Every structure is written in C-alpha cells, then in structure tokens.
Please model this.
Amino acid sequence: MKVLVPVKRVIDYNVKVRVKADGSGVDLANVKMSMNPFDEIAVEEAIRLKEAGTAEEVIVVSIGVKQAQETLRTGLAMGADRAILVTATDDVHNDIEPLTVAKILAKVIEEEEPGLVICGKQAIDNDLNATGQMLAALTGWAQATNANSLEIDGDHATVAREVDGGLQTIKVKLPAIVTTDLRLNEPRYASLPNIMKAKKKPLEEKTPEDYGVDAAPRLEVVKTSEPPERAAGEMVGSVDELVTKLKDKGVV
Amino acid sequence: MAVLLLAEINDGTLSLDATSKAVTAAKDLGDVTLLAVGASAKAAAEEAAKIEGVAKVLVAEDDLYGHRLAEPVAALIVSLAGDYDHIAAPATTDAKNILPRVAALLDVMVLTDVTGVVDADTFERPIYAGNAVQTVKSKDAKKVLTIRTSTFDAAGEQSAAPVEDVAKADDPALSEWVKDKVAESDRPELTSAGIVVSGGRGVGSEENFAIVEKLADKLGAAVGASRAAVDSGFAPNDWQVGQTGKVVAPDLYIAVGISGAIQHLAGMKDSKVIVAINKDEEAPIFQVADYGLVGDLFDVVPELTEKL
Model:
C-alpha cells in the first residue's frame, strides 16, 4: 500500500505573528517557515506504517510556492520515499484554498492510487480544518478526522477520533482519508545523515495546469487586522483581596 | 435568503447553548431552518423549535444518523441544500467534521470558526490561533460556514416553530461506528460552563491537578487545561482550552499555573472576567487578566478554595 501525505509550509509555530500595518495580511518577510506541526504528525504516522510493513511507500506532496521544496525535503529526511511539488503560486502571501488543494490532491490520487491519505487536521496559518474532509468528499472516500490512534486491518482502518467529550472509534473502508490530532504520535527529528540522503530522493515538480485544476480563489481577503485587545487589569496582593474583588464583580 | 442550520444534537440531546448561539449569528442572514439529525432527534427538534429566530425545524430521524458519521450526514445536507443560500452549524467537532465535506460536494469553499457576520457574503474569522482576524468575502453562490459560538449571545425563546420530517438520504456506506469513550463527569460541559478553572504546566503532575479540580468543584465550574498540561499528561485532551482544543468564554475564567501561550489565549480571551494565578510575575497571562495574583499556586489555590 502507498501512503500519501500532503504537507504545508507555514510560519513556524514558535514565531510571533505580526499583522501588516496596511491590513493586507501577515508579515512573512524574514520569518522562519516550517512544516505544519499536524502534517509532521501525519508524516510520522505514515513512516511508522512503512516500518511496520503495512505500507510500502510514503509519498509527500505540497501545493503552494516553490519554497515548499524545503518542507518536502524535511518530510524526505524524516523517512518519506519521494515527493511531489505542485507550484500553484509565486507569491508567498497567496494561501492556496483547501478546495483547490483538495482538487489537485484528488488528481494526484488518481495517478498514484494510494491506499491511504494522512493529512494534518488543520494548518496553523489559516486554521481552516478543511482539506482532509474536502478531499474525502471529492474522492468519495471515507474520512476519519482528528485521529488519536490508527490501526490498519486488511481493507479497513480503525480510528479513534478526538471529539467533544471524549473519543469516538470508527471503522472506515480503505482507501480513506485520515487527519491527525496532536496525540497520535510524537514526530521524530531528522538525523543529519538522513537530511543528506533526502537531498538525493526524487522530487517531481508539477503545476495545477498539469492536473487541469483551476486554482482561482473563491474567497477574497478584504482585510487582516489585529484581534481586539483586552483592557489591562490589576494585580491583587492577596487571596482575600481577590475574593473581595470577585464578589464585588458578582461572578462568584 | 434562507439558512439551513445543523442543530447540535448528541444521543438525542440538544445542545441548546451551542445551537442557540449559532441561531443568533445566522438569523441576520435570512430565515433560519434548523436541521435535527440523529437516531433519536424528535424531542430535540421540539425543543429547538422554541429558539427565537427559528422559522422551521426539519427532522431526519434514522439509525443511519445515530453517531453523526460525516458521510451520511453530509449526504443528507447536500440533498436538502438546493433551497438554501447559507448552510451553517455551530463549530463543534462534529460540525467541523461534516461541513467541509458538504462544501466540497457542493463545489464551494467552507468558512470555519466564523466570529463575525459582516453581510451575507462577508465574514470575520480568526487565523494564526487568534493572532489575527481575517475579513473574507465569498464569491460562491452558496456559503457553508461553521460558527464559533463563544462570540455570540444565546437567542431568546419563542412559541414553537413548525417541525417537519424529511426523508433520509442514501447511505454512502463508507464508515461504521465502533464505540464511544465518554469522559465521565458530573461537572458542567467545558464550552458552556459559567465558570472554568484551568491548570497549566505549573500544576506539575496529574495528582496535583486535584487542587485545580477542588477549586472547580467548590465553584460548580468546569475544569480546563493548557496544551502544555495536556501534552505533559497531567490532564486529558478533552480538557484542553486553546486554538487546538476548545474555545471557551465563561463569565469567570481562572487560570492556574498557566503562562499564557498564544494558542491558549486564543481559546479563552473572550471570557468576561479572567483571573490569573502564577508565580512568575512576567507571565504573559497577566496581560489579559482582569485580576492577577503572583504566588505559589499550591498555597494560593487551596486558600482560595477555602475562602470562596
């Protein structure tokens, strides 16, 4: 079985995001970029399936700017076998919408015929939480989102999903789309020898036109602004003072 | 303009808080028709019909919808979509699972976690864990959106709107439910609780979380946790408050031993009154707190529990 893992290049999760003064977006100049953390979990899970003998090949795919090549090399250094880069824009500020990404991935799936696709549950830039579900709709496959555990058993996968109030376990027909939640696994760090080896692994370059997909956005970003700030509060000196304040406020 | 809004129903029980707040957000867009889906949904539908602003309730009651699996529920919504300009739902884990699938089946984009409705085509939503707010205008003929309920007030009551049955849609037969593991608790549900007491990495261990839980129980509050506390194994994942967990906006939020990472603040900064207890006076949590107390939580929290 082949496993396909879509990965996205995003602002590193440790970086403090700054909104541009003109409201046109978020400042990406000289900012550290990394693989979306939920996608790292997806890559890790795919590699573990390969190590367990369940998967034969792990393919990482990224759709976005040319620089996403670095993100794909990270995936290859972690242990993926080959990569596909679909360059859909030259502008780093142009976020390719999940619907477009899903349409391109659906075409990649037609060509590669994977038995399983593992996606991150959401990208930490647009926080949309949509690509996996949209891809499942377009392929007509089952979806198991927010996976906390994943077991492959013949032509089915059993997935425990993180839901409001606990875990829901479902069994889905393969091929299927699984999206990862935080506690599925802890992704490995790529070792230096593996980073060197990753440079020689195959990376195929494509465009949306190669797949006959129209990448025109459906959403127009009118503006991007800072979130409303809370007014500064006050420090209290003791528990007694805190209790008095809370009682005065009528919240306890 | 007409809106189809998926009511939040689990095992036959209506989540009135989430559904009612979503109705508040949706009613400016047009007449709101609620869709009640489940193996048992009639009673919940009757209850939901009394939410102010609801014009009609459709009920799809069938075993097929018992566990709200994404594929059959999405197929049902798509079968009804023709009559509506907007398809919406409160942004619960169920709806976040289902609505993007609906959107792709309709060949439109989805807008998730909407925090503001500007007009019928234009919406506000947080990006980068709430560090920025994006205003987006949709060019799609139909808009599919999930609504972050913590930013809207609950709707009032009205005399019951009409309730009608709708036919079930074809079963895509792709997935089946195996089991639920529900976290047993007598405490209020985290996202709708009036008071939330959360612990962070500073609490130090799973055993020490009892201190946080005691304060919560004294106040009749729900218990939350920061991602750091969850990742350290001090607290279960469904207690997680933050961008990657639950978004809450209670009347009172007490943060214990939580430094205030950006992703945590995104999940609680809409709370009406925020109290922070931390031994590090430089902790960023104090910047959003109404009342801050610098001190050792192992002294302060038991004292607070006793004095409240």
Observations:
- The domain at 190-307 of chain B is CATH 3.40.50.1220 (Rossmann fold).
- The first helix of chain B runs from residue 16 to 26.
- Chain B touches chain A through 88 residues (CB under 8 Å).
- The mean pLDDT of chain B is 95.
